[in-house]
Amino acid sequence: MERPKVAIFDFDDTLADSFQAPKPEMIERLARLMKLLPVAIMTGAGFERVQRDILAMLPAITSNLYIFPNSATQCYLYVDGTWKLEYNHALTLDERERIKAVLHEYLEQSTIMTDAPHFGERVIDREAQIAFTIVGVDAPQDVKKNWDVDGSKRRALLEMLRAKLGEFEILTGGLSTIDITHKDTNKAYGVRWLAEKLRIPPEEMFYVGDALYAGGNDQVVVPTGIKTKQVSGPSETAVVIDELLATLSA
Ligand SMILES: [Mg+2]
């Protein structure tokens, strides 16, 4: 493995199973990595979840950690001992209402949606982003894994949503989530923003995510030139971090 100057991680299905907290061993790995290079978390999750499941669990927080919640439509920096919202490209109220109206229409009329098992909330308004969790936020992991094994339902939904909401960025997140944001703000924007902030070109940065496939919410980072590593889930991410720690400590 080459020696990157920055490490960026997706959260759901990368640092943890989707909508779960990372295991203590993963938190420990992140803490060790943060001592060696700048680390960023770029996720579809909101800041509150990152704070509860990751930041609150870390033994110490330093300005070496960068948080890009809601698909990098927001950025938080750790300044003088507190988290500061550095930028916020939230959707307007009108935009959010329009997106939600289309999603609710599909929930009632599309057979993909009416046939899908679902548990809990399915449309989540996080201001910067509308997250569409097809099987619901409370769905058990096996339901998330099995409702659309070949990805064909997600692809069909993406196509339908893009036809109706073409002015927005619409990408699949975890196994059962579609994220809707402004078109010009996504994880690629986050990578470029961080590259400029740190004065390190994307080519010398390293991105680890589970959705680097076509249409996945991690794939958008590829054109920035950043080195990427596709993982199948947290256990593979742990191996990647161990390799990274070994390389950086060598
Ligand atoms: Mg993911």
Describe the protein.
With 250 residues, the protein is an alpha/beta fold. The chain folds into two domains: 6-89 and 185-249, 3-Layer(aba) Sandwich (Rossmann fold); 93-182, 2-Layer Sandwich (Hypothetical Protein, Haloacid Dehalogenase-like Hydrolase, Chain: A, domain 2), CATH 3.30.1240. 36% of the residues lie in helices and 21% in strands. It has helices at residues 24-34, 47-53, 69-72, 93-109, 111-115, 141-146, 152-164, 187-198, 234-249, and strands spanning 6-9, 39-42, 65-68, 74-79, 82-88, 123-125, 130-133, 168-172, 177-182, 205-209, 227-230. A seven-stranded mixed β-sheet has the order 5-4-3-2-1-10-11, with helices on both faces. The protein has a four-stranded antiparallel β-sheet with strand order 6-7-9-8, with helices on one face. Helix 1 (24-34) packs parallel to helix 9. The mean pLDDT is 93. The protein binds magnesium ion. Residues 10, 12-14, 173-174, 209-211 line the site of magnesium ion.
Cα-based radius of gyration, to the nearest Å: 17 Å
Share of residues in helices = 25-40%
Q: Quick one: biggest sheet?
A: 7 strands, mixed
The low-confidence parts are none
Mean pLDDT: 93
If helices are DSSP runs of H or I spanning 4 or more residues, what is the number of helices?
9
**CATH homology group of the largest domain:** HAD superfamily/HAD-like
Bound molecules: magnesium ion
Q: Can you tell me the number of structural domains? A: 2
Q: Give the helix/strand class.
A: alpha/beta
What is the CATH third-level topology name of the largest domain?
Rossmann fold
Listing every helix as H and every strand as E from the N terminus to the C terminus, the arrangement reads: EHEHEHEEHHEEHHEEHEEH
| Largest sheet: spatial strand order | 5-4-3-2-1-10-11
Beta-strand level of the residues, as a percent range? Answer: 15-25%
CATH architecture of the largest domain: 3-Layer(aba) Sandwich
Q: Between the first and last Cα atoms, what is the distance in angstroms? A: 11 Å
Overall spatial form? globular
- For the record, what CATH class of the largest domain applies? Alpha Beta
Topology, number of strands = 11
